[in-house]
Write a structure and sequence with these properties.
The protein has 353 residues and is an alpha/beta fold. The protein has 14 helices and 13 strands.
C-alpha cells in the first residue's frame, strides 16, 4: 500500500467534491499516510483538514485562460515529479484532465474520480473527446454510481470501480421534538441545482401553508438572479438565501425538511447529510442515479421526477400534512445512513491504494 497520497481538487470548500475529498484525506492521514492536497482555488471557507496534511495552492501567474491552464499543469507536474512514490487522487472531470496530462510518463499511480453525471459533457463535444481519450490513461476511475460507470466505453469501464460518497461522521443526532416550520436546501447556487423550481414549488406550498419558510444556503453564479426572482414574486420575507456556512448542520437540524430540485448530480452530499441527520427529505430522482441508491420513496425519503414543480410541491405538502409518516421517514433515513457511514466508504478508498 502506498504511504504517500497527493489529492488534486479545484477547491477545498463550498462544494460536494471538496467535502468528500476532505473526509477521505483526513481518514488516510489518521491512518498513517502522508497526505498533500493541491487545490486550484483558495477559499476562506474550507472544510476542516487534519493539521498533518500539507496544502499547496496551485496558483498560475498567467491571466489568459489557455496559458493559465498550461502553467497549472506544469506546476502540478513539478509536485508530482518531486513525489513519484505518491499515488495521485484527482476529483472532478476538468481537474482530472489536467492531472492526467501533468502525470504523463511519470511513475505516479493515478486515480481519478468522476463527481457528477458524466453524460452532461455530451453537450461539449471537444471536451468529451478529450475526456474519453485521457481517461484511458488513468490507473483507476472511481464513479459514484453504477449508472455513471455504465456510461463510459468498455476500455474505461474496465478500469472503473463504484464507491459512493461517505456520509459525514459527527453529524448532529436526529432532532426529537417539534420541528421549525422551515424548509432548507444547501448547495452551490448553479444552474444544475434548478433552484428556481424549488422556489416555484414553495410558492405553491405557501398558498396553503404560509407559516412555512424556505431557506437556501450557498454561493454561486445564480445567487443574484435567484434573489431578484424572489423579489419579483413577492416572497422576499419568506424565502432567504444565505452564503456558505461551515456550521450548516447545526443551523438546519431542527428544520421541517430538506428539499432538492437538482437536474443532475453525482451523489448529492447535501442529501446524504440531511438523511444522516434524519431530516425528512424530498429530492429529484436525477441522473446519474445517486438519489435512488439511497432513497426508497415514501420509506426513508421522497423521490420526485426531474423538472416537475408540482411533484416537488406535492412531496413537501405530504410531509407537512402527514407528520406521523414524516417521522417514520425520518427514522428510516437515519437507519440507512448508519449503513453508509464514512468509515465503511473510507475503507474502500484505503483498499484502493
Amino acid at each position: 500500500m502506498t504511504k504517500k497520497v497527493i489529492f488534486v481538487s479545484n477547491i477545498v470548500g463550498n462544494g460536494g467534491a471538496g467535502r468528500v475529498m476532505s473526509v477521505i484525506a483526513n481518514y488516510l492521514s489518521d491512518n498513517g499516510i502522508d497526505v498533500t492536497i493541491c487545490s486550484f482555488l483558495d477559499s476562506r471557507d474550507t472544510y476542516e483538514i487534519n493539521q498533518k496534511i500539507k496544502t499547496i495552492l496551485i496558483h498560475p501567474k498567467n491571466k489568459i485562460t489557455t496559458f493559465k491552464k498550461m502553467e497549472r499543469i506544469l506546476l502540478l507536474r513539478k509536485v508530482f515529479k518531486e513525489n513519484q512514490d505518491a499515488s495521485i487522487i484527482s476529483f472532478e472531470y476538468f481537474v482530472n484532465l489536467q492531472t492526467l496530462i501533468a502525470a504523463l510518463f511519470l511513475k505516479n499511480r493515478v486515480i481519478i474520480s468522476e463527481r457528477n453525471d458524466p453524460k452532461q459533457l455530451d453537450k461539449r463535444k471537444i471536451m468529451k473527446i478529450a475526456r474519453d481519450l485521457l481517461y484511458r490513461l488513468t490507473d483507476v476511475l472511481v464513479c459514484q454510481t453504477p449508472e455513471a460507470r455504465k456510461y463510459f466505453t468498455r476500455a474505461i469501464r474496465e478500469k472503473a470501480v463504484v464507491i459512493p460518497n461517505p456520509i459525514l461522521p459527527n453529524l448532529p443526532e436526529k432532532y426529537i421534538g417539534q420541528r421549525k416550520k422551515e424548509i432548507v436546501n444547501f448547495c452551490r447556487l448553479e444552474p444544475q441545482k434548478n433552484l428556481k423550481m424549488l422556489i416555484d414549488a414553495y410558492h405553491l406550498l405557501y398558498k396553503e401553508h404560509p407559516d412555512y419558510t424556505l431557506t437556501i444556503y450557498g454561493d454561486g453564479s445564480e445567487k443574484e438572479k435567484l434573489i431578484n426572482y424572489i423579489r419579483k414574486i413577492g416572497l422576499y420575507k419568506k424565502i432567504k438565501i444565505h452564503g456558505f456556512t461551515s456550521d450548516i448542520h447545526k443551523k438546519i437540524n431542527q428544520c421541517a425538511m430538506f428539499a432538492s430540485s437538482s437536474n443532475y448530480e453525482g451523489i448529492s452530499n447535501s442529501m446524504l447529510e440531511a438523511l444522516g441527520m434524519g431530516l425528512p427529505s424530498v429530492v429529484t430522482d436525477c441522473p446519474c442515479g445517486g438519489a435512488r441508491m439511497f432513497i426508497k420513496s415514501y420509506e426513508n425519503g421522497i423521490l420526485v421526477p426531474v423538472g416537475n414543480t408540482h411533484s416537488l410541491y406535492a412531496g413537501m405538502r405530504y410531509l407537512i400534512e402527514n407528520p406521523i409518516e414524516a417521522e417514520k421517514i425520518s427514522e428510516n433515513a437515519v437507519k440507512m445512513a448508519k449503513a453508509s457511514a464514512a468509515d465503511k466508504i473510507n475503507l474502500e478508498w484505503l483498499r484502493l491504494l
